[in-house]
Amino acid sequence: MWSIDAIADALIDALQTQESELRAEQAVYGLDALAEVDIHPLLASGLERAGLGVLREHPYPHEWLAKKPSSKSRIGLPEHRDRQRCDLVLTPSPGQRLNDALHNERSRREEADRLRGSLFESIATPPTTSRDPALLDPEDALWLEIKLVNQFCVSSGVPGPNRTYSSELTRNPVADLRKLADDHRIVHAGVAVVLCACDEPTARHDLGVLAHKCLDRNLPIAIPAFRATPIQDRIGNAVCALGLLTMRSLTRSTLEMPDVYPPQ
């Protein structure tokens, strides 16, 4: 259903397009100066140009069941604002939305609460709606977290090596993959790591280290997709690479595998 190579091509195309625009305007700052949240709309636009639907900052579909209800809620459900959110959720076609179990449960409980104590309470039935063709189950979407890592960065106004480079490259993407794997209704998922580095061999090697870290932690990743494009060297980074690490289709056994992280 999902072509990982096509998605990787769309993501690197978005980065190449932005780099070309920065060169044309002779910008002082490049891709490696963007904040991670600034990368999200950039990548989303590339995926949309490839014909995919993109939902930004969409709540995880299943994790709300483990959250405590809001103290202000009459119907015993967590608030929408308290849910974990995924950076980008891809749908096969533009305009599609996701079927949200929390929204459905909230509607059912609110209707039951409205009828409680009335003559119709005993015969009340859950609200039903016809299946909207634009509504997609979470299992059919591709859930994508985004991580931006720079080998060289500007700290306190001074460019130089990123002192937290290794931990940023390995710890955060692994944590995101674990979070995706823990949600029982996410089947297709991955992490797109945008890595600005000194050269392509370094980027390829370091993203390979990340892939091995995932395997060491028993995360069921597929073969990563790698793409790279040259960027103007402003602070030491001469290439922008993309590492797309996707989860193999999750089974019940992988979802229930024990935590393999060492104690902190």
Q: What would a concise description of this structure say?
A:
With 264 residues, the protein is an alpha+beta fold. The chain has one domain (4-63, 84-99, 139-255). The chain has helices spanning 4-24, 36-49, 101-115, 165-182, 200-216, 252-255; strands at 53-59, 85-91, 97-98, 135-136, 142-150, 152-155, 158-161, 188-197, 225-230, 239-246.
The overall strand count is 10
User: Which percent range describes the beta-strand content?
Assistant: 15-25%
Tally of helical segments: 6
Strand order of the largest sheet: 1-2-5-8-10-9
Tally the structural domains.
1
Query: What is the SS-derived class?
Result: alpha+beta
Largest sheet: 6 strands, mixed
Oligomer: single chain
Helix content: 25-40%
Q: Which consecutive residue ranges, at least 5 long each, have pLDDT under 50?
A: 250-264
